[in-house]
Amino acid sequence: MSADAANDVPQPRPRSWWMPLALVGLFVVALVLRIAYVVEFSHAPDFRAPGVDAQFHDYWARGLATGDWTPPRPYEDPQVRGTPFLRPPGYPYFLAGCYRVFGSSPLVLRIVQSVLGMLALGLGFAFSRRWFGGAVALCWLALAGTYWVLIYFETELHAPVLLIPLLWGLVLIVATWTERLSLTRAALGGLLLGLAALVRPNALLLAPAILIWAGWVATRRGELRRIVFVGGGLLCGMVAALAPATFRNYYVSGEFVLITSNAGINLYIGNNPQADGGITDEIPGVGTFRTCFDYPALVASLERSQGRELTSSAVSRHFTHEALAWIAGNPLEFAQLCGRKLIMFWGAWEIAHNKVLRVERTQSVVLSPLPVHFGAVLGAAVVGLAFLLFTRQRNESAHDDDDRTIRRRHEVVVLLCVLVVTYFLSVWPFFIAGRYRLPIVPFLMVLAAGGVFEVIRRLRVRAQRGSALVGVAWIALATWGGWPTSPRGAEIAKWHTDRARAWARLDDPAAACAEFESALAAHPTDVEAHMGLGVTLIQQERYDEACTHFRAVLRTRPGFAPAQRQLLLAQQRAQQKSPGP
């Protein structure tokens, strides 16, 4: 063979020795961060005594695992067993499985959830490497493995830790439809989508979006007839996942409730005269709804106001009607509220729900140094999306095999965009919170990793002008919604108040008092801290001090009934304790 002929033979590309090393190093860093945060969080009171939604999930799971449905003090029976699911059942049932298999240790549970988080990292890396290459996959792993919000929620008793790997499994399956549309793959995708909907019911909206995307892909290949089989398979998989929940709801109540009965009240929380885009404790005209333990009392209040008993579906329809009536009667306010929720969802900061996320981060030695926030991810994702679409156009003259690969990558990019936008639209009508946005962040990070890789590539080939323009665009987009600012006094007060309530659940009134006092030091007029400290002081028979705090509340909120009742109680007990003349 001549030398020229030998040169024409394709030579295998040398394997990069640094990529496996970088992969192992990034996974080790991600694992160490998770272990370190679990150890740090284990010293917090809500590690053992979670509150609000996490407490409800824990109660529900323990009831399933042990058969003991005794509600925690001071709550009444939330009637989980005899009514349709109020909250999605997927995560509590997963939690119950963990308790049955591994016991009720809070430490073991967090370890299991951290392993689940590492599994999600593995799925995300596999997806990124398959469709965008090893370098982009490593960039993705660096972002996702050190993203503080993911690490934080892997230790919380909330749904994202289960929802994210389910969505990764869904995306991995659906992306293969660009290679082959088959009934089996469609059914598996439907099963995963149904399981995701059991964790977050708004995931159901992804089904029509995926079918539209699949129809677009099939049209590009001249296989539009196959979309009927794909749609049938997707539906069958979803029915297989959802049927047990629907049958259970009908069995216990005689009502047809697909998954949950909370759509109406959630819609009303997000759209009422007092709505501000986030979660609120007070339901106008009905009562307080701080936790799902309050829901039976809320329904009872509504039944008294209407003079009749209401089914779960009727309650949901009532709140839906109230929300739609407010929207129809206040179009300008509704438009402003939608704009506010749009900014809240896509802004750089993390919107608090049960806990104040900004303070949680600043108070953590492990999380506070981690630099990546949502604004930076979003900015890089927009830049990466532009580059990926540009790459598709730039390679139009490539060979057939290369063009086919580029076309499929382009279709997968569109799939990611469809999933992100559809998920946002499913949340937008309700209310915004950091944990409701989190499930789409790993998918945005795939686009962000593409942007990071392209910037690095351009710097390596000395494309200074293009890199400078990209850098300016990235910085501008990263500041969208404003950089996270230092927590305010009210937020710090709430953080201490939440910890105080956790100590109270652990029957440690001294620690609870210390946290309430720290809350008042940060925000001297905080009503919740004064009320909580006053009640705790009553329990310690320090009645005069308790009266001081209830009077402070009444100076801030004259006529506040709970403070008036507690003040009267403290005064009566102080008189009973005082010696007679």
Description:
The protein has three domains: 19-246 and 368-478, no CATH class; 263-347, no CATH class; 489-577, Tetratricopeptide repeat domain (Serine Threonine Protein Phosphatase 5, Tetratricopeptide repeat), CATH 1.25.40.10. It has a two-stranded antiparallel ribbon with strand order 1-2. The chain is an all-alpha fold and 581 residues long. It is built from 27 helices and two strands. It is globular, with a radius of gyration of 27 Å. Residues 1-14, 392-401 and 480-484 have low confidence and may be disordered.
Strand content: under 5%
Strands of the widest sheet, in order across it, are 1-2
Give the SSE order as H and E letters: HHHHHHHHHHHHHEEHHHHHHHHHHHHHH
**How is the biggest beta sheet arranged?**
2 strands, antiparallel
SS class:
mainly alpha
Radius of gyration: 27 Å
What is the number of helices? 27
Low-confidence stretches: 1-14, 392-401, 480-484
The number of domains is: 3
**Share of helix among residues?**
55-70%
Give the beta-strand count: 2
- Mean pLDDT rating: 86
Span between N and C termini? 120 Å
Morphology call: globular
